[in-house]
Design brief:
- The chain has about 575 residues and is an alpha+beta fold.
- It folds into 5 domains: about 30 residues; about 150 residues, no CATH class; about 120 residues, no CATH class; about 130 residues, SH3 type barrels (Roll); about 90 residues, Alpha-Beta Plaits.
- The chain is about 50% helix and about 15% strand.
- The protein has 17 helices and 15 strands.
- Strands 1, 2, 3, 4 and 5 form a 5-stranded mixed β-sheet that branches.
- Its main location: membrane.
- It is found in: Membrane.
């Protein structure tokens, strides 16, 4: 048993020894100094194009490295600029340090916006300007990332590293991984063949970070996009004019007219930029997200326009049928379809916004940073999203709870209306006299309203007349009964009622009620009933003659006072 324990202990010691040997071998090429030494990557040999002691650049600090490298690049002195490159990961037989320095300078100048104020000007790279709450405040660093470039679906950092060779001083250089990625990045972000064929005079810097050819090319790119947009607009317009206005294709073409024109402009703009002109620097940072936003907005607009056009076409062709008294099945179907359409719209919009935010890396662009730093964007998004999301949820709630369906007859704000459309923020209502009322969805979730076709389309209509207190109501029941038995819109004559509902010193109120098949028929019947009963009351009143016989229509009483006799009496 003791031998077994000894064997186990020996095996564990062997495993741990092998593990630490592997780790030591992995760190042999590069290690971190400890104790009082500088915080650096220790290397066996710093592979640069210049021998120790003759470095033409300021490599003591990150800011010194960047300033001296960019200055050498502006002079075209690539042999000096190459002193800032750690060439350890490049093949000595194939490397061209001057070419790598020129390509890196082009990448930094064209494709990155360098935050010069954020570069430390200390050998230990301690950031002395940050807040004390920053976890990196007062911490020495041996590596800094000054930018990111996308390459083959991954973000490649442009990184500075502080390295030290034996018996050498610590220096800041572009890291060996960054130098290794320069050719691949230059292939993607470098100048096109067309740009390389331009005269040297046009490739010189004009102002800002733009070269002369970029100043000339930008208006040409915009002109090409505008020309493509105009041709697309005219083509769709001609195709639409050849269609009948009642066809689905006409509605779809009408809906996608503007989004397709926008897509033609943005797509042509992106295609010309990618193929012929690769703008650089801050101009690229501003145009890239704007270009992506326009393309995504156009695609989302086309998708939403097609959905909207098809839905409107389907519902507009069946508006009268939806308002039919017994057509509850179709009203339920189109209301649910409307809710699904709004959900799809919200999903498409959120997907488009999410794609733009992720794909364009907006947080690192110049324009977005300016807005975000002011805090304006956050406030706008918070308040706008709160209201919009509330309205969207209210409209979905109305559609699925079916408190108001498309085609329902409702009584809203003192008006009789039909529901024509349930949108994200508003309901479109059609009044009985063909006017359109736009009502906020919040009114239908927070306030009460009358739905006349929720369960049963039939409606009890009533007419109230003010008659003289001496009127004989029984004599009015005869013409009322005659009306309800002969009118074609009264569906249940036995349900009709005539009753006195109020009275005061001047007159009494008599109500005549009869049931109609639906609100539309009920309104016409209501008007005929009022006219019929007023005519009957007028005939009875005329036949009554002078008082004291019964009167039907109210009369104003006059009180006479003989002031002269009253004076004599006093």
């Amino acid at each position: 048993m003791g031998n077994i324990h000894k064997s186990i202990v020996t095996a564990l010691i062997t495993v741990f020894a092998a593990f630490f040997a592997v780790q030591a071998q992995a760190q042999a090429d590069r290690s971190v100094a400890e104790g009082s030494q500088a915080y650096v990557y220790e290397v066996e040999q710093l592979e640069t194009v210049t021998p120790p002691g003759s470095v033409p650049l300021d490599l003591d600090t990150p800011m010194g490295l960047m300033e001296s490298f960019m200055s050498a690049g502006e002079r075209g002195d690539w042999s000096d600029a190459a002193a800032a490159l750690d060439l350890a990961n490049t093949d000595p037989a194939e490397r061209d340090a001057d070419q790598l320095a020129a390509q890196l300078y082009d990448l930094l100048n064209r494709s990155l916006s360098i935050g010069w104020t954020e570069l430390p000007d200390r050998p230990d790279a301690v950031d002395t300007t940050t807040s004390s709450k920053d976890p990196m405040s007062g911490v020495a660093r041996r590596s800094l990332t000054i930018g990111l470039l996308d390459l083959e679906n991954r973000a490649v950092p442009i990184r500075l590293a502080r390295v030290q060779a034996p018996d050498g001083e610590p220096v800041w250089v572009f890291s060996r991984q960054t130098v290794e990625n320069i050719p691949a990045l230059y292939e993607v972000y470098g100048p096109t063949k067309f740009e390389k064929s331009l005269p040297p005079a046009l490739r010189k810097q004009a102002f800002w970070t733009l070269a002369w050819w970029e100043v000339i090319a930008l208006p040409l790119i915009l002109l090409a996009g505008a020309l493509a947009a105009a041709l697309t607009y005219l083509a769709i317009n001609r195709m639409r004019d050849r269609q009948d206005e009642d066809t689905k294709l006409y509605g779809v073409l009408q809906a996608i007219h503007l989004p397709a024109t926008l897509l033609a402009f943005a797509g042509t703009f992106a295609l010309v930029r990618t193929t012929f002109f690769r703008l650089s620097g801050p101009a690229k940072d501003l145009l890239d997200p704007l270009q992506l936003i326009l393309i995504i907005a156009a695609i989302v607009g086309i998708a939403l326009s097609v959905i909207e056009a098809l839905f409107d076409f389907a519902t507009s062709r069946r508006t009268d049928e939806l308002e039919a008294p017994g057509n509850n099945e179709d009203r339920n179907f189109y209301t649910k379809m409307s809710a699904i359409r709004r959900i799809l719209t919200a999903v498409i919009l959120l997907a488009g916004i999410g794609f733009v935010v992720v794909a364009s890396n907006l947080s690192n662009t110049l324009g977005f940073s300016i807005i975000a730093s002011a805090g304006v964007l956050g406030l706008v998004l918070v308040f706008a999203a709160r209201k919009v999301l509330g309205d969207i949820m209210a409209s979905v709630q109305i559609a699925f709870a079916q408190t108001a369906r498309i085609g329902d007859a409702i009584h809203y704000d003192g008006q009789w209306c039909f529901v024509e459309k349930i949108g994200f923020t508003h309901l479109r209502l059609r009044t009985w006299d063909e006017r359109r009322v736009i009502a906020p969805v919040s009114d239908f979730t927070s306030d009460s309203f009358e739905n006349w076709t929720k369960q049963d389309a039939s409606l009890m209509m009533h007419v109230e007349l003010e008659l003289d207190n001496r009127a004989d109501v029984d004599k009015l029941r005869e013409p009322f009964r005659e009306f309800v038995e002969n009118d074609e819109d009264v569906i249940d004559p036995e349900d009709a009622i005539c009753e006195v509902v109020a009275q005061d010193a001047r007159a009494m109120t008599v109500r005549f009620m009869a049931r109609a098949e639906d609100p539309k028929c009920g309104w016409a019947m209501h008007c005929r009933l009022r006219e019929h009963m007023l005519a009957a009351a007028s005939r009875l009143d005329a036949a009554a003659g002078n008082e004291p016989m019964p009167a039907y229509l109210p009369r104003e009483r006059e009180v006479r006072m003989d002031l002269g006799r009253e004076d004599e009496a006093t």
